[in-house]
Amino acid sequence: MTNKASIHSNPAAMTAAEAPSRSVVLGRTKQSTNRAAKRMVLLAGVYTIGFAASAILLSWAIDPLQHYHKSWYPPIYSNEERFQNAGLARNYSYDTIIIGTSMTENFRPSEVGKALGGKAMKLPLRGSIISEQYQTAKLALSTGQVKRVLWGLDYFALRTKSDTGEGGFPGYLYDDKLWNDYPYWFSITPYAELAKGAFKKLIGQQTELETLDSWDSWTRFGKELVVADYKEALQKEAYFGLNEDPLADVQDAFDTYVMPLVVAYPEVQFDFYYPPYSVLRHVVWKQTNPVRYENQMTMRQWMLERLSDRPNADVYDFQAESSWTFDLNQYKDLSHHRGSINTAIAEAVGGRNPAYRLTSDNIDEHNRRLEQQVRTFVIRPDDSVTANPVRIGGRDVFFSTREAAGEEDLLVPAKELAAELKLQWRWDAGSRTITLKHNKHVVTMTIGEAFAIVDDQKKEVPSPAKLIKNKLHIPFFFAAEAVGLSVDRDVREPAVTAFVVH
């Protein structure tokens, strides 16, 4: 007879006896765990769907960038143009749009509307490339309300890749697909922009459409800033000349992103314009990036030819308007000008001013004027800039180098001047003196001396003779008159005065 003690003292017997019950317990535990896991997954899914639905509903209701509808609360606008412009283009009322880079930011919609005869919406994109401008214009045109487009075309925007450091373009805001709007639904960025806009409004900074994106009222302008930027750019921009996009690529960009819109919307008037950079902007390009400088000239004529058979397109050129481009006090750097110039541009376009509207008959003259200004510019001691073409014997003469001599004269290479004026000359290296002779007149100038000897008389010179890039330079106007020649000043346009030698 076996007793209980002996049974419990036998581990093998106990394990065998209890095995069925343990298997059942383990099975039930596993089932319970699986059910709990499924419940957790289900709850997580419910919570995720609920969160997503709430985020989508919140985005639609608050709609910080007015992507789906105009705001039901007092509108607050973001200065992040790539994000804000889509909502403005899609949900606001207008019949004229303004497209371009930062050069178009200082337009006032009310003034553009008055000049062009409509209601304008400004949709600028600072630092943009042409594909971004295309998507913005395309969205606005798709609303069916656009009758006119004012499009500032910067040559450097006609490229395929951005080199400005500006943020990526949110293409999902500009298409008609709802499913790819998830970056807008689940990002904190739109709400951060809303908060920034609200703060700016609270402290009194304007965020109304009339002044949105404009920097005209708070930016410092001045010729000293532009000249400083010019000197810095001469050093820094040499790199860009080594990486300039081929002209064929630029033309392809125009045919891909601009021409299709002109063709697709024949009832819409497209007014393209070349912005008026300061003359020093072109000077820097000619010196550090001559490929871009020449390409831009070629592109202007090529674009005019491409649009010549399109009655709904005009091209305007303001780049040689010396009353603006030589007045450096109108600029904050080499390129960006005051809003008053934007207003003048709108008025010129609205009136189809023939002084700026390009045609096959005047395009060569526009290019010639700009080329002459760039080749004859001079920075004066007070940081003002003038252009001083020289005509000798009825022809234009260009010197290899030139520099300001006082308030009105020019320092030019002595050897080149002597050749052009047919003067006899002699250089004395020991005394560092040059002697010029013409008929009975004799002029002697010494490097660094503020006086010259003219026909045995001592006369003050506007600027002493000096070496520039290892070339002896002397004052042109002074030297020509000193040897008995007649020199007239021909004031052709603001800041442009030609020296005409008879």
Tell me about the largest β-sheet: 5 strands, parallel
Stretches with pLDDT under 50, minimum 5 residues: 4-8
Strand content: 15-25%
The order of strands across the largest sheet is 2-1-3-4-5
Structure in words:
This protein has about 500 residues and is an alpha/beta fold. The chain has helices spanning about 5-10, 10-60, 80-90, 110-115, 130-140, 180-185, 190-200, 225-235, 245-255, 260-265, 280-290, 290-305, 320-325, 340-350, 365-375, 415-420, 475-480, and strands spanning about 95-100, 120-125, 150, 270-275, 315, 375-380, 385, 390, 395, 405, 410-415, 425-430, 435-440, 440-445, 450-455, 455-460, 465-470, 470-475, 485-495, 495-500. A hairpin with a 2-residue loop joins strand 8 and strand 9 (about 395). Helix 9 (about 245-255) packs parallel to helix 12 (about 290-305). The radius of gyration is 36 Å and the shape is elongated.
Topology:
Elements lengths: L3 H5 L2 H52 L18 H11 L4 E5 L8 H8 L3 E5 L5 H13 L5 E5 L29 H4 L3 H14 L20 H14 L10 H11 L1 H6 L4 E6 L4 H10 L1 H18 L5 E5 L4 H4 L13 H12 L12 H13 L1 E3 L5 E3 L2 E3 L2 E3 L5 E3 L3 E5 H8 L2 E5 L4 E6 L2 E6 L4 E4 L2 E4 L5 E3 L2 E5 H7 L4 E7 L2 E6 L1
Parallel strand pairs: 1-2, 1-3, 3-4, 4-5, 8-20
Antiparallel strand pairs: 6-7, 8-9, 10-11, 11-18, 12-13, 13-14, 14-15, 15-16, 17-18, 19-20
